[in-house]
Design brief:
Helix content: 40-55%
Largest sheet: 8 strands, parallel
Number of strands: 10
Order of helices and strands: EEEHEHHEHEHHEHEHEHEHHHHH
Radius of gyration: 19 Å
Shape: globular
Strand order of the largest sheet: 3-10-9-8-7-6-5-4
Bound molecules: flavin mononucleotide
């Protein structure tokens, strides 16, 4: 499929997730067959005031593409200027966050607060589209709240502004990430638009990915939480979509190898102090469902270096 002029090799994408989808994890997911990866959300205003840190924040990497950088903000002029400033960096698509429900983001008029204003949505997209050459996409929710289920209206505004695709997360802002995602709204947006629509919410397996494609008609699926500590989901989903065959879950030794590699990449990228601490969160995800959960959790919170991580992986994944 194409998003604007960017060719995407398959229709299974990894959701942008702050604190999760940094460069090391994006690289691992891409290697497992993910079709498109997204950065963590990056503040356009932050870039505006602190351009020296731009590159590190977005973690661009020539080897891990196609890659979408996600910006958040609500001032069309700043969004357009920042998009222009980063245009020559090695990424392919600019995505605009119109779904973040966090109070500190919404209070500034950013993230899902934009769901309240179709005019502003159109203006923001149009400002970014006209300032630079890369395709622009938006990621929206089902609606601002239960009284304003307006994903179709917002998606149409983005399309008028020149967006090349729209991702719909089938929950309202007050739902955050709880409750069941509404896939009907994804179907409604798909019927209303003539640009690709990416469906998001509650894809947890190859079968649910297939079900979302079939029931909504969306062009691609985006996987969030089910990809935490589970990069194999991309291989398993793409294989199932292409062949109808279910690949087995990864073995414990496959998992152990990936965890060690992930930790090394994170430490190389962020240094030992930050890398190890951030790896604790990923270890929590990777070890979900393993026996001895509470002992393991306590141990995860005390790992201080690569050696500690290796001991933990040997003990809980390999039983050594
Ligand atoms: C830890 C975490 C961080 C997230 N950060 C972002 C973000 O930076 N930008 C964004 O658009 N959505 C973010 N999301 C929302 C996801 O992209 C996705 O829309 C949501 O998790 C629903 O998909 P799922 O049911 O597959 O998890 C985040 C979600 C989680 C759980």
């Amino acid at each position: 499929m194409y998003i604007g002029n960017v060719e995407i090799k398959n229709n299974v994408f990894m959701a942008p997730m702050a604190g999760v989808t940094d460069k090391p994890y994006r690289t691992i997911c891409m290697e497992m067959g993910c079709g498109l990866v997204y950065s963590e959300m990056v503040s356009a205003k932050g870039l505006f005031y602190n351009s020296a840190n731009t590159e590190k924040l977005m973690d661009c990497d020539e080897g891990c593409r196609p890659y979408a950088v996600q910006l958040f903000g609500s001032e069309p002029e700043i969004m357009g200027k920042m998009a222009k400033r980063i245009e020559d960096m090695p990424f392919d698509i600019i995505d605009v966050n119109m779904g973040c429900p966090a109070p500190k983001i919404v209070k500034n008029g950013d993230g899902s607060a934009l769901m309240q204003s179709p005019e502003l949505v159109e203006e923001i997209v149009s400002a970014i589209v006209s300032s630079q050459k890369k395709p622009v996409t938006v990621k929206i929710r089902k609606g601002y709240d239960d009284d304003n289920i307006n994903a179709v209206e917002i998606a149409l505004a983005a399309q008028r502004g020149g967006a090349s695709a729209v991702t719909v997360h089938g929950r309202t802002r007050p739902q955050f990430y709880s409750g069941k995602a509404d896939w009907e709204i994804i179907k409604d947006v798909k019927s209303a638009l003539n640009i690709p629509v990416i469906g998001n919410g509650d894809i947890v397996s190859p079968e649910t990915a297939r079900a979302m494609l079939d029931s909504t008609g969306c062009d691609a699926v985006m996987i969030g939480r089910a990809a935490e500590g589970n990069p194999w989901i991309f291989e398993r989903v793409t294989h199932f979509i292409n062949t109808g065959e279910l690949l087995p879950e990864p073995s414990r030794s496959q998992k152990a190898q990936t965890v060690i590699r992930h930790a090394r990449m994170l430490i190389d990228f962020k240094g030992e102090y930050i890398g190890v601490r951030e790896m604790r969160r990923h270890l929590g995800y990777y070890t979900k469902g393993l026996p001895q959960a509470s002992a393991m959790r306590a141990e995860i919170n005390t790992v201080m270096n690569m050696e500690d991580i290796k001991i933990l992986v040997d003990r809980y994944f390999l039983g050594i």
